[in-house]
C-alpha cells in the first residue's frame, strides 16, 4: 500500500481509526526527510495492514503546530486512535521495523488502563 497524504481535514479521521497508522511529518526542503522518504515508502509496501501517511509541514502548518512538531522529520505511530510513539529524526529501515514490531506487540488494554490512570479524577464538590 502506498502512503496517503493527510491534511488538517483528514488527519483526525485517519489516525482515530482502528489499527496502526504511522504518520511522517516532513518538508520538501528537509534533507533528512528526503532520505527517510524511501525507507517509509518501502515499509508501506512491506506492511499492507498498516496505514502509512505523510503530512507536508509546509502545506499543513496549522496541523503541524497542533501536533507539536518542532523538528522534522517526525514519526508518529497511532494504534486504535491512541498516540503510542512520537520521535523526531530519520529512522533507518531496521529501526522503523522495530517501531512497527513494538506497536504491534502493545497490549492496548494496558495502554488504555495507563491512560485512564493519568486522567485527573473528577470532583463532585
Automatic annotation (TrEMBL):
Pfam families: Thioredoxin. It comes from the Bacteria. Gene3D superfamilies: Glutaredoxin. Keywords: Disulfide bond, Electron transport, Redox-active center, Transport. Residues 1-105 form the Thioredoxin domain. The keyword Electron transport applies. Belongs to the thioredoxin family. This is Thioredoxin. It comes from Georgenia daeguensis. The lineage of its organism: Bacteria, Bacillati, Actinomycetota, Actinomycetes, Micrococcales.
